[in-house]
Every structure is written in C-alpha cells, then in structure tokens.
Amino acid sequence: MKILLLVQQEQRVILDRLYEGIAAHTDCDLRWLGREDQANLRRYFRHNVRVDDYERIVFFLRFKQEIRQVPFIRTVPNLVILEHDACQNYFPGKYQGKFSRHYAQLPWARVISSGFTVAQRLREEGVDAVFVPKGYDQTMLRNLGLERDIELAFVGSTKSSVYTERRRMLDEIGAREQLLITRTASGDEYLRTLNRIRFFVGADAGIGEYMIKNFEAMACGCVLCANDQGAGENAALGFRDMENVVLYRDAAELSAKLALLREDAGLAARIAAAGQALAEREYRFDRLGEKIALALEPPLRPRPPLGAIERFRLQFGF
C-alpha cells in the first residue's frame, strides 16, 4: 500500500523507529513537517503533494494545528489520523471534548488511537477508531543487567497541566514511600537510569490510558507499578496484576503490594521478567509499526464528493 506519512519535525519523543516499522510494511513516503508547514497544510499540499499518488494519507501532526484547518482537511482523500493524545478528550483541560468535535467533522477519516478505551468511546460516538498502543524504541531501550540501586522511582515530567493528577498521585505515594522523582536527558542517561530502578512508578492518574514510560520501564527490566487504567485497557494490553505488572488504584494499595514484594524478591523478579518479555513481544516500535500498517488496510468509509465551494478553494488555493 502506497502511503504518505506526515509527522512532526519537532517531537517530545523520538519516534523514528516507529516510522521505520510502518515503512517496513508499506510503500511509505515519510515527510517531516515543521511548524510553518503544519500551520498551512493547504499551501503545503498545493506545492508538495499529489493526493492521487497515495492509497492512504496519514496525519501524525499537532492536534492544535489540525483543528484550525478543518475546511482544507475535509478535502484530503483517504485520510487516516494517528493520535497519541486523544485521551485528553475525556478529562478536564483545554482539549476536553475537542477531539470528538473534530472527528465529527471528518466522519470518513479513520483514527488510530493509542488508548483502547479511548478508541472504544470514539467508536460509540460514530468515529472509525482503531486501537494501536504506545510502545518503546527497541534500539534504544533494553535490560542492561545493572545493579538496581534505586528502589522506587518515577522518571518524567509533572509540570504540564495535563499531569495535575499525576503530580497528586506521586505526592501521595511520596508521603508513604521513599520515592525518587527525577528527569533525565533522552538516550544513554535515560537508559541507564531505568536500568538502576527496581520498582518504576507509572502514575497515569486520570489519563485513561497507559503512557509510553510504562512500556519503556518494562523493556528495561523494572517491576512496573502502574496506576490501574481499568479492566478493558489491561485486557487489551495483556497486563495481569502481580504476574507481569503491579496495578494499584491509590497510594495505600501500592504500599501494601510493595511490602509484599520486598518480602518476596523471587516474585518481584518474576513480575519484572514477565513484564519485560511482554514488552519485547508486543510493544517494540517495529511491532507497533506493523500493527499500524495493518490498521490502514481495511477500506475507509466513503467520503462525499466535494461541494462547489470546496472544489473552487482547492483549485485556487485559498
């Protein structure tokens, strides 16, 4: 399948291996769009894209820019939107409800969401939504077999308003446990830090899906202690409490399970090994790239013919 994959030039997470995974299973024209091009997709397409050359046109762009350009985006044929932030549609914040409204204006587009429950809720709203989870870069992150001299830690950001509940949860855990909260540079420093952590705290409170750090920690051999995102999400991901992951709903439950694991080092080691095996089997970016490619294949919903005004604007570029 010939696809055009448009991605953000500036991203918080390095996703090159994910794009390579998609390209390995499609005939992929990958293009990196900077802020200026993302802000004026009509101009970019007019000068750089022949839409008839592609069986799918895939957007993995800033949602903030997409919602400002609906009149043009409605003219893009064979559209698929890859979205890792649609969970923000369902919790308080500046994007609450905006994903639903955006996709309602593009009912023929397919949305590939990184949350199982999010995709399910979007489908209930009439969106052609498919679930493909987040994962990790298999070329950067792995178990190095280092001494795990940091018992309990979280590595990542807590400053964004999106993470208000994360900060609250970490504060509650920190009041009960000796919890290290830190940040690192990406690359080797992050890899080595994860490899020093015995119990990694995933604190996705209020998010509704599991963020990328959960999978990265599993791949590096940590015991993942994940804030429970619900039975549907866990079943879809293969998360089994106290078998390949430690699930908790509040700080008290996490403390109780940590006490058990401190008494039973063998159980902790088995959970870490099973979690690592699950991540390596299912959540490598090359594997997820294949899943995204498969999600592109089913026929899309028919798009109504363009109206006279849309055809005029498309022809003359305004």
From TrEMBL:
Organism of this sequence: Aromatoleum tolulyticum
Official protein name in the record: Glycosyl transferases group 1
InterPro entries named in the record: YkvP/CgeB_Glyco_trans-like
Lineage of origin: Bacteria, Pseudomonadati, Pseudomonadota, Betaproteobacteria, Rhodocyclales
The keyword Membrane is assigned to this record: no
Molecular function as annotated in GO: transferase activity
Keyword Transferase: yes
Keyword list, A-Z: Transferase
Pfam families referenced in this protein's UniProt entry, alphabetically: Glyco_trans_1_2
TM stretches of this protein: none
Domain Spore protein YkvP/CgeB glycosyl transferase-like, first and last residues per copy: 178-287
